[in-house]
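Sample A.
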Amino acid sequence: MTTFTTIRGGETPLIEVDAAKRLSKIDPMTYGGFTEHMGRCIYGGIYDPQSPLSDSNGFRKDVVEALRELDIPVIRYPGGNFCATYHWQDGIGPREKRPSRPELAWLGTETNQFGTDEFMAWLSVLSEGSPEGKRVEPYLCLNMGTGTLDEALAWVEYCNGTRDTYYANLRRANGHAEPYRVKYWALGNEVWGPWQIEQMTADDYAKKAAQWAKALRLLDPDLVLILCGQDGTASWDHTVLQACVPVVDMHSIHVYTAAGTSHVKNVTAPLAAERAIRIAASLIELARIERGVSVSRPPTKICFDEWNVWDPERAPGDKGAEEQYTLSDALAVAVWLNVFVRQSRYIGMANIAQTVNVISPLMTTQNGVVRQSTWWPLLLFSRYMRGWTVATHVRAGAYDGETQPAWLQGALEDGASWLDVSASVDEQGYVSLAVVNISDKEDFEVEVKGIAGKDVSVYTITAPQVTATNTESKEEVGMVEGMWNGEGPYKFPKHSFTMLRWKAQ
């Protein structure tokens, strides 16, 4: 957690880190990914059998190698809005027998050449490069639009069944003797939205979700079931939690941010997600109290399984949502990640949407991959912001102008600090301090307490202009590494993200 006070008079900006005060564990699942049958995420992204850059399975090797750098713990599939008309049985068995279907979420055609078995195989390939042989966990989203409970139970049986039963045997007949052991299952996606096939009221969804949860646990009591919330601030969240908190393990919320050409509004917008997390956490606590959930039952965590910077007007979903991200967007992503670290007490999983090509930090071309500006903060956080959130205090000036969304301006009593900060300490005792200077006009000389006398590794992401981008032909936003002796003030450049890292006593 980070506390903040506004500078008064001529005070020097201050960041104070107390590595001894471990506040809450940062769940490794915070750095999850998301793949959807949308645009070029699957076809032409992770799966491209016609490309010379692909392996014998059709998986892009350069994509796998890049994603291994992020040490992704979990990936959500197959949507997203796509799952509301997806019938998983269309995507198994011999490819030449798989039907093509109209796809209604993004108004395309789904060939079903990539399905459950291919996704699991891709995760296995991705896992081969993970530290200590850790498995990248699958997280599957059930079709609660045109799908049925029978279909959902069959999918769980296909993935996890160990007995001599029909769908477990079908998996074996398709060449997969061992169960996939899929632990995480979402009870639908955004079924509150008017864009959804089979949109439901909160009451109708809650009744359906409770019944599905009961049946799914009878089949496999070890499942982690994730409720479909809205954005954490809505009456929908309150209603479905009141009904379902006794039978689910996590509550999903989605938020995307963007603010057109206004840099400061763009980088402060993720602070709305911080409010959403705190409100949703309170709704969860209230529901557990009022429903009499046993204190022995593990906490119901928030699954923030879609988040990112996305402007649908700039990158329409039905045209593939291929955002070209700027330095401003990269700093917004860094603020997003600071939010998750600061609120780690409540986060059980978070999944950036999406992993390749579609509103993604990683883009494919015929010749290779492009790491967009947003890649770099994601890489630094996933690599170093592990372990525990530690107590941090910031004294700085603040932005108190208009925000996106507009209500955020009133919610920030002291404004938004020009220095957006989080800090962590890992198992080896290394402290990581993440600082976003959101100002596009001013460098800040800052006193940093808790660091004196240390050899400090420095990682900086910036560019001459907040509009800088990375493409196949140019890279304007990257990461610069350096060292600092920890003495005196540290200058955080305008429109920059800086990570300072040192060994605590």
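Sample B, a different protein:
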Amino acid sequence: MFFLITIGKFAMAQQFEESYDLNTEITIKGKIAEVIQRQHGPIVIGILKQDKIYHVLTAPGWYIAQEKIELKLGDEVVVHGAKFFSKNGELFLIARSIHNISNGKIYSFRDEFMKPCWRGKGNRKFIPQ
């Protein structure tokens, strides 16, 4: 049973990695209300805009640490990202970039071809080969 759950997480991760669709790209501005780091997959941040929380898929934890990306509770951010629905029908945004207004930094998560910036960097890969 554990094996099936692990496979599902990697399948979700691969689906997220390959699913950036420019046709569904939106921009939202709000405050970081939560930061969720799971054992596998991307770090997810919850952005509070008015009375709604938008869950944003960012990058693997190792990439966030390597690039010294700072996303803290209460930070005001502008997220550019594509809408993505999980197999359960849950809405996420896949981050292309995040402008952290609180610290003045802009973080990129996708290259000019919309591929993840962490793909192929170093020996670590997001999806095990």
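Observation for Sample B: The first strand starts at residue 25 and ends at 36.
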